[in-house]
Design goal:
This protein has about 180 residues and is of the alpha/beta class. It contains five helices and eight strands, in the order ααββββαβββαβα. The chain is globular, with a radius of gyration of 18 Å. Pfam families: DUF4154 (PF13689).
């Protein structure tokens, strides 16, 4: 993909357009790195969550609602820890098959409805559209100057039957709370 962008830039005769093609490829390369980082982080967070007994651990279902801001292609990386399949859906279409609920950009009403639905259920909630982690998700991803971090909403974690290993809780900034 990057090679084809450079090739397109080489075929264009004006220097201004060549510079635009080169900067577009740099942005795409940077976005690809962020996508990989987001997918690794989601996989890592999920690997530290413990679902209640009787919940199959090998394969998890992540439902993506809304438009993710940081990673256009969701494919959580869980090396050696089972797999996470990804299914995009609407707020109205979320079902109990979702082990992980990823909340992207969406109307506030839909977000509130989904957070209310999750309470008391064994569903891990992650968002990239609430850096302050105040709207009810358990983990909130944020990006600053090409680095990825997350906040932990201890209140949201405490409301459900999932258990999260304290080691991941110490890594997150823990600033959230609802």
């Amino acid at each position: 993909m990057l090679a084809s962008l450079f090739l397109i830039g080489a075929l264009v005769t004006t220097p201004q357009m060549s510079v635009q093609a080169a900067s577009q490829s740099a942005v795409e390369e940077s976005a690809g790195g962020m996508t990989r980082a987001v997918n690794r982080m989601i996989g890592g967070i999920a690997s530290y969550a413990r679902w209640p007994e009787g919940s199959p651990a090998a394969n998890r279902q992540m439902c993506v609602v809304g438009t993710p801001r940081l990673a256009p292609r969701m494919a959580p990386d869980t090396p050696g820890r089972g797999s996470i399949s990804v299914r995009p859906m609407t707020a109205a279409g979320v079902t109990s098959d979702c082990d992980i609920l990823f909340l992207g950009r969406m109307p506030v009403g839909d977000r509130r409805q989904l957070i209310a639905w999750v309470r008391g259920r064994p569903v891990l909630t992650i968002t990239d559209d609430d850096a302050a982690c105040i709207y009810g998700a358990m983990f909130c991803l944020s990006s600053r100057s090409a680095s990825l971090s997350f906040s932990v909403n201890l209140d949201a974690i405490g409301r459900g039957p999932l258990r999260v290993d304290p080691r991941v809780l110490r890594i997150g900034s823990g600033q959230g709370g609802t």
